[in-house]
Structure formats: structure tokens, C-alpha cells
């Protein structure tokens, strides 16, 4: 598959080559088992941000108190919903269909 970002051709990890299956019967040479690929080990899924992005995130102002207030009102069910505004937001989506 082509990587859409770099354009490199590479095989995705979700597509594994077919593995050989042992055809021995239980009791002869052991139980029937499929061989597992060596690449099935858990991989690190951490992400490292660029210096510029880390600085941008640090300087971006976020009102944590307001975020917590909105979360609490959603959990309590008291967050105001404007049905008309919600319905109007569906119009552009419907036009795409």
C-alpha cells in the first residue's frame, strides 16, 4: 500500500503473511498449532511531538475551569441544547448525500 503522507510503498501491519499450519494430529507430534509471526510482539505506540508543536500547545490558552464546568453539566444532563441549531447543522451533511 502507498503511504498517503510520504508516498512510500509499504505493507501495513494489519496484513500479515499467511502462516503455515501444522497438520499433525494430537498425540502424534503434539497438538495442532499455527505458527505465530515473530512480529506479533507488542509495539510501542507512543508519539513524540515536534518542538514547534509542543511550544504551540504550551502557549495555547485553555480555560480548564470552563472545560470542567461543561463536562459536569453534560454528565448532569443540564447542558443546554438548541434543537434548531442541531437540525440546521444536518442540512450541509444531507446535501452531501
Describe the structure.
The chain is extended. It has a domain at 65-97. It has helices at 51-59, 64-76, 83-96. The chain is mostly helical and 97 residues long. The chain is built from 3 helices and no strands. The mean pLDDT is 73.
Gyration radius, to the nearest Å? 26 Å
SSE pattern, N- to C-terminal: HHH
Proportion in β-strands: under 5%
Structural class: mainly alpha
Major sheet: size, sense and barrel closure? none
User: CA-to-CA gap between the ends?
Assistant: 29 Å
Q: Fraction of residues in helices?
A: 25-40%
User: How does the overall form come out from the CA principal axes?
Assistant: extended
Look at the structure and give the mean pLDDT: 73
Which regions are unreliable across 5 or more consecutive residues at pLDDT < 50? none
Number of beta strands:
0
Q: Note the total helix count.
A: 3
Outline:
This protein is mainly alpha-helical and 97 residues long. The chain is built from three helices and no strands.
Question: Keywords, please?
Answer:
97 residues, mainly alpha, 37% helix
Question: What's the layout of helices and strands?
Answer:
Layout: H1 51-59, H2 64-76, H3 83-96
Amino acid at each position: 500500500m502507498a503511504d498517503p503522507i510520504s508516498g512510500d510503498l509499504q505493507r501495513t501491519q494489519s496484513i500479515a503473511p499467511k502462516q503455515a499450519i501444522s497438520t499433525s494430529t494430537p498425540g502424534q507430534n503434539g497438538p495442532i498449532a499455527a505458527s505465530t509471526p515473530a512480529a506479533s510482539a507488542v509495539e510501542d505506540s507512543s508519539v513524540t511531538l515536534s518542538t514547534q508543536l509542543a511550544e504551540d500547545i504550551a502557549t495555547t490558552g485553555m480555560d480548564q475551569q470552563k472545560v470542567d464546568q461543561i463536562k459536569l453539566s453534560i454528565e448532569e444532563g443540564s447542558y443546554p441544547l438548541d434543537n434548531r441549531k442541531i437540525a440546521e447543522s444536518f442540512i450541509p451533511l444531507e446535501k452531501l448525500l
